[in-house]
Design brief:
Layout lengths: L1 H47 L7 E6 L2 E6 H40 L7 H4 L4
Antiparallel strand pairs: 1-2
Helix pairs in contact: 1-2
């Protein structure tokens, strides 16, 4: 009977660990995507900055290529870039928080832990 409880507890712990790792992996993927998009915006802005404001350029909006001028596109790109930076900051904070949770969780599992199990494992 005790062996069944131990085996069940081990499965629960493995599931919690897997959930932490999957969440971290998903956040890392999102962070990578946002970083790539931010870099693309930066590259386009660097390309457009030296051009005259009345120069024609094209922008993809909801899958439709539209003709605009540099004067119209640059402010929108800056706004989007700033928004992406904020999203990236939020994702990095979420990642750090989840990583800290995982580390605390691991500490609770460390041998000779004098903390009760109830404090180590918050409801998920």
């Amino acid at each position: 009977m005790a062996q069944q409880v131990s085996m069940k507890r081990q499965q629960e712990l493995q599931l919690q660990y897997t959930n932490y790792k999957n969440t971290l992996q998903q956040l890392a993927q999102k962070i990578g995507d946002v970083e790539q998009e931010t870099e693309e915006h930066k590259l386009v802005l660097e390309t457009l900055e030296p051009l005259s404001e009345d120069r024609k350029c094209f922008r993809m909006i909801n899958g439709v290529l539209v003709e605009r001028t540099v004067k119209d596109v640059v402010p929108a790109l800056k706004t989007n870039s700033d928004g992406l930076k904020k999203v990236l900051d939020d994702l990095l904070k979420q990642y750090k928080t989840k990583q800290d949770e995982l580390e605390k969780w691991k500490v609770c599992l460390a041998p000779f832990s004098d903390r009760p199990w109830t404090y180590c494992f918050p409801a998920m």
